[in-house]
Amino acid sequence: MSRKGGLGGQGMNALIKSADSEIRKAAEEAEKRGVLEVDISLIDVNPDQPRKIFNEEEIQGLAESIRENGLINPITLREKDGQYQIISGERRFRAFKFLNRDKVPALVLENIDDSKMLELTLVENIQRADLNPIEIARSYKKLIYDLNIKQEELANRVGKSRSTISNSMRILDLSENIQNLILESKITEGHARAILSLTDENEREAFAKEIIENGYSVRECEKIVKDRKNDNNSQENTENNQKDNKKEIKKDPNIRQLENDLEKIFSTKVNVIDKNGKEGKIVIEYYSSDDLSRIMDMLEKIHERENSTIPTLEY
């Protein structure tokens, strides 16, 4: 292993600013040591690498670019027992192997344990905008499970807002087939959010196929979904108007006033269902994933402001 001048990469800057002191210290020390030339034979891939799909044509194209212009950003490694494990830059590593190079420029982090590897990899790759939305969402989910933390703590660790984390993970509610379409870049994350607004699984699958066949933009998808939901709601409203009107007539004026007050707070339809004057339920309606996220943020702020003992809401 030899030294080589020059540093680079938004990812390393992100690691240095990490909330985790162990990661921050290792990143600062790696930057001080500078870029090293590491034997490729000593490098192993990361089993927790969020990226699972590597396009061979892209790898070969990257290899040709490296052959012509050199490597702009070094890969990032973790040293472990005399070997090295990739934190980020597996495509660049594969490109160097394709070129039959013996060494690859790398920034090397030392004294990092196994529990930090996924977090390191995710933060570095996110800063490079190097991951597909599904890969990011799956990594968030794995981190929450492996580290036994909540969305808010994860948001602090990776430098994102809690709503960004929850919105990202929501696309995992889509079927595996639709998730694969995102992985293959046949539809975007924006398309996926429009599809999520549909509740019927068969309708989601059919709409995903329709998006690809017709080349719909995200804006067009949102309009189509909105129109379809309005049509469905119109039909349901026609069927249920008489029943609802009868219920409204019988509803206690105090309950109706409470509903009006809550609707002003949440800017959406609220239904208070009183069973016997002692118990019941409050139904707050939402009409998109972003609308749900907005309502959840409001509830959490109310929780924090009132210093309630109610546990943090998860969804």
TrEMBL record:
<dbReference type="InterPro" id="IPR036086">
    <property type="entry name" value="ParB/Sulfiredoxin_sf"/>
</dbReference>
<dbReference type="InterPro" id="IPR041468">
    <property type="entry name" value="HTH_ParB/Spo0J"/>
</dbReference>
<dbReference type="Pfam" id="PF23552">
    <property type="entry name" value="ParB_C"/>
</dbReference>
<protein>
    <submittedName>
        <fullName>ParB/RepB/Spo0J family partition protein</fullName>
    </submittedName>
</protein>
<feature type="domain" description="ParB-like N-terminal">
    <location>
        <begin position="36"/>
        <end position="126"/>
    </location>
</feature>
<dbReference type="InterPro" id="IPR003115">
    <property type="entry name" value="ParB_N"/>
</dbReference>
<dbReference type="InterPro" id="IPR004437">
    <property type="entry name" value="ParB/RepB/Spo0J"/>
</dbReference>
<keyword id="KW-0238">DNA-binding</keyword>
<dbReference type="InterPro" id="IPR050336">
    <property type="entry name" value="Chromosome_partition/occlusion"/>
</dbReference>
<feature type="region of interest" description="Disordered">
    <location>
        <begin position="227"/>
        <end position="252"/>
    </location>
</feature>
<dbReference type="Pfam" id="PF17762">
    <property type="entry name" value="HTH_ParB"/>
</dbReference>
<dbReference type="InterPro" id="IPR057240">
    <property type="entry name" value="ParB_dimer_C"/>
</dbReference>
<keyword id="KW-0159">Chromosome partition</keyword>
<dbReference type="Pfam" id="PF02195">
    <property type="entry name" value="ParB_N"/>
</dbReference>
<comment type="similarity">
    <text>Belongs to the ParB family.</text>
</comment>
<feature type="compositionally biased region" description="Basic and acidic residues">
    <location>
        <begin position="241"/>
        <end position="252"/>
    </location>
</feature>
